[in-house]
Amino acid sequence: MYRLSKLRFGFPIGLILMLFLDGSISQIFGAQLFQPTATMVSHLVVLWLICAVLFEDRYEIPIARWGAIAGAVFDLYYTGIFGVYVFIFPLVVYLTRQVMGYISPNFLSGLLIYFIDITVIEALSYLASRMVHLTSMAGSAFLVNTLGPTLALNLALFVVLYFPIRWVYNWLK
């Protein structure tokens, strides 16, 4: 069914758009997002992937494959280190699909899943940075200065963008 729908082309276009919007938000609002006391990282790519899992219904979109491709582009373009997000994005898609087996998809459950996914992404990227000595930030400083503000920003973005993204997915079906 996926091959016959507009999702075949619309999903990758939306993913690319979210990739560029992530970078644009960081560039335009860099002074507000990246301060010495608080760092906020937008994860619109993850929002697109998670919403795909929430809204896919009977369409079997290869979200994990697209997540790996988006992770490779994200790694090469934004982080400069290949391999972190290539594994994290498909892992988050897998985690979301597992959780979706136990709860019904709606706005509040999507918000909870997105909260968990952003926490996993930030924690794994922090651990990867610690392993290759890119950061020397203590765990408590990471929780207060990076994870908390990042969760606040991304949950606000989820609340604002959930219904427009749902409309786009319904239009593409």
Provide structural commentary.
The protein has 173 residues and is an all-alpha fold. It has one domain (2-172). Helices cover 76% and strands 0% of the residues. The chain has 7 helices and no strands. The protein is globular.
As a whole number of angstroms, the C-alpha radius of gyration is 16 Å
Compute the separation of the termini in Å: 10 Å
Number of helices: 7
Strand segment count: 0
The percentage of residues in β strands lies in under 5%
Order of helices and strands: HHHHHHH
Oligomer: single chain
| Inertia-based shape | globular
Short description:
The protein is mainly alpha-helical and 173 residues long. It has helices spanning 7-28, 30-33, 44-55, 63-79, 84-100, 107-131, 139-172. It has one domain.
Strand and helix layout:
Blueprint (H helix, E strand, L loop, with lengths): L6 H22 L1 H4 L10 H12 L7 H17 L4 H17 L6 H25 L7 H34 L1
Membrane topology: Multi-pass membrane protein
Organism: Levilactobacillus suantsaii
Protein name: Rod shape-determining protein MreD
